[in-house]
C-alpha cells in the first residue's frame, strides 16, 4: 500500500468514526445557529437603514442616533461572536480534535 493510499484510508476511517461525527455535531450545533442569528441581526440593520429611516434617525445623545448605535453594535457583536466561538472551540471542539489527532499519530505506518 502506498503512502497516499494509506493516508486516504486513515482519513476515511477517521471521518467515519463516532468521535469525528461528534466533533462535527458540536461544530455545527454552534456555528449554524450563530451564523443564522448574526445574518438576521445584520439584515435587520440593513432593512431598518433602508425602510425605517425615521426610527434610525432618532437622536439618543447629541448627534448620536439609533442608526449609529446599531451600526457600532454590529462591530461589537462580531467581536463577541469571535470570542464566544473561541471559548466554544476550546471547551468542546479542541479536546475531541486533539484526541482524534493523537489517535491518528499513534497508528503504525
Automatic annotation (TrEMBL):
Transmembrane segments: 30-52, 64-85
Stretches assigned to coiled coil: none
Cited PANTHER family: INTEGRAL MEMBRANE PROTEIN-RELATED, MEMBRANE PROTEIN
Record's protein name: Membrane protein
Signal peptide region: none
Pfam families: DUF485
Keywords from the UniProt entry: Membrane, Transmembrane, Transmembrane helix
